[in-house]
Design goal:
Elements lengths: L3 E6 L20 H5 L5 E4 L1 H4 L4 H10 L5 E5 L2 H6 L6 H9 L9 E7 L8 H10 L4 H8 L22 E4 L8 H10 L2 E2 L1 E3 L14 E6 L12 H15 L22 E6 L7 H11 L19
Parallel strand pairs: 1-2, 1-9, 2-3, 3-4, 4-5, 5-6, 7-8, 8-9
């Protein structure tokens, strides 16, 4: 059986207050509320700056059992360093505490800027650097800056597998060499719906599918119609069953290897006009995955006001 996660990208947005978040809900209770309305959330703060072990532990404790986060890798690695001389920055990221999410840690997302082009050798080095298990991440974290050593960021048992996904925004990546590289390293190529602003592709390159829905017509702003959500539901069902949709938009023609199932991670990022949490809820309902969620939009779960 596949695991299907439908959620939102981030959870702290001013316009959501007194709309998705009910009047009187404390800001430090917003994660508790949101994590009972969807079954996964993409952590955005880690993209802008390193978080702390205390924050990751807090996020783990504030969310219900069975909940899953994805974590966005630092832009310092992808946008500032642009994958050059990144051994210590990657170590710093894993030393900052994401492993402390424990079983609630889902994929790690690496998003690249629109002006970054595909360099096969550079991406190959990056993919080889990424740890694929907790043990490998602990070893990687040993190379962190002195200020991060001994902070308890890797004090967690087990050797669970780590997953990685890549979101591209430049057409130079639309080549067979990139797809082959992703498949070699079992890294997912993000299915990114961006209202035609950036490339949209559906090549399956790992044993899971990672989706980011940035807006149906207008980037970050427009919601998804019932028709659009039905289309996404159909694609999710097919991908979760291990297959490929018939009208897939592909870089490399042909179906991926058939699997019994694939896990799905889908995040709505059309947050500017408060569409994201409602669209996520509607898609969960269409997939009949809302049965074990605690709250309806606008109705507070048992969290502190």
């Amino acid at each position: 059986m596949s695991e299907i996660r439908i959620g939102i990208s981030g959870w702290r947005y001013g316009p959501w207050r007194r709309d998705f978040y009910p009047k009187g809900l404390r800001q430090d209770s917003e994660l508790a509320f949101a994590s009972r309305a969807v079954n996964s959330i993409e952590i955005n703060g880690s993209f802008y700056s390193l978080q702390t072990p205390e924050r990751y532990l807090g996020w783990r404790e504030e969310t219900p059992d069975g909940f899953v986060f994805s974590v966005k890798g630092p832009r310092y690695i992808t946008h500032v360093r642009r994958l050059k001389d990144i051994e210590e920055p990657v170590a710093n990221f894993f030393a900052s505490g994401p492993l402390l999410l424990g079983d609630k840690l889902g994929p790690i997302l690496w998003q690249f800027p629109p002006n970054m082009t595909f360099d096969e050798a550079r991406f190959a080095r990056f993919f080889e650097l990424l740890p694929r298990t907790r043990d490998a991440a602990r070893e990687c974290a040993k190379g962190c800056a002195e200020r991060l050593k001994g902070n308890g960021s890797t004090d967690i048992d087990g050797n669970a597998r780590l997953r990685h996904a890549v979101e591209i925004r430049n057409e130079s990546f639309l080549c067979e060499a990139f797809v082959k590289l992703l498949r070699k390293h079992r890294i997912a190529l993000v299915v990114a719906d961006s209202a035609d602003k950036w490339p949209y592709v559906e090549d399956i390159t790992a044993d899971f599918v990672y989706m980011r829905l940035h807006g149906d017509v207008e980037l970050y702003s427009s919601g998804y119609t019932a028709h659009a959500l039905r289309r996404w539901k159909q694609r999710i069902v097919r991908w979760s069953q291990g297959g490929q949709v018939e009208d897939a938009q592909l870089i490399v023609p042909g179906a991926p290897p058939q699997r019994a199932s694939r896990d799905i991670y889908c995040y709505f990022d059309n947050d500017q006009k408060v569409h994201a949490p409602y669209d996520a809820r509607r898609l969960l309902e269409k997939l009949k995955l809302d049965y074990d969620l605690v709250t309806e939009p606008g109705v507070a779960p048992e969290v502190e006001l």
